[in-house]
Amino acid sequence: MAGNLLKVHENSNAVILSTENLSSGWYAGRIRWMMVLNCVFRSGGAAILITNRKSTRNISKHRLLFYSLRTQGAFDDKGYNSAIQEGFTGVTLRKDVWHVAGEFVTPQKLEQTKTFFYERC
């Protein structure tokens, strides 16, 4: 849709936002320790600014070289059961959530060639 709008409107910018939430137990409060589930392995997002301004073609700050690799741990029973709803509003975090989270944020999981790289233009 953003690409079509840029074709119609000259010298314009568009912001594309993408989000995912794999849990209906999203915590929207302000208590930090309860936000762990939102941050660890159940949600994500990205944004990009695109333009059709010819004057900015040669001064772009970055060019995308590789795509990021998304790691999801809910396929594993231990990961899935470490953060689960129990019929109440919100989510129960079991003590092994830290172990499960640690498995998915270690450098070994994301090879350097698979992470998000930018190249200065």
Note down, in words, how this protein is organized.
The chain is an alpha+beta fold and 121 residues long. Helices cover 21% and strands 23% of the residues. It catalyses: a very-long-chain acyl-CoA + malonyl-CoA + H(+) = a very-long-chain 3-oxoacyl-CoA + CO2 + CoA. One of its GO terms (molecular function) is fatty acid elongase activity.
List its salient traits.
121 residues, two-stranded antiparallel sheet, 4 helices, 6 strands, elongated, disordered C terminus, fatty acid elongase activity, FAE1_typ3_polyketide_synth
Topology:
Blueprint (H helix, E strand, L loop, with lengths): L1 H7 L4 E9 L14 H5 L2 E9 L10 E3 L12 H5 L1 E2 L7 E2 L3 H9 L12 E3 L1
Organism: Centaurea solstitialis (yellow star-thistle)
GO molecular function: fatty acid elongase activity
Keywords: Acyltransferase, Transferase
Distance between the termini: 27 Å
Secondary structure: number of strands: 6
Taken from the alpha-carbon principal axes, the silhouette is elongated
Order of helices and strands: HEHEEHEEHE
Mean pLDDT: 65
Which stretches are low in confidence, meaning pLDDT under 50 for 5 or more residues running? 114-121
Query: What structural class do the secondary elements suggest?
Result: alpha+beta
Compute the number of helices: 4
Amount of beta strand? 15-25%
Radius of gyration: 19 Å
Helix content: 10-25%
User: What kind of sheet is the major sheet?
Assistant: 2 strands, antiparallel
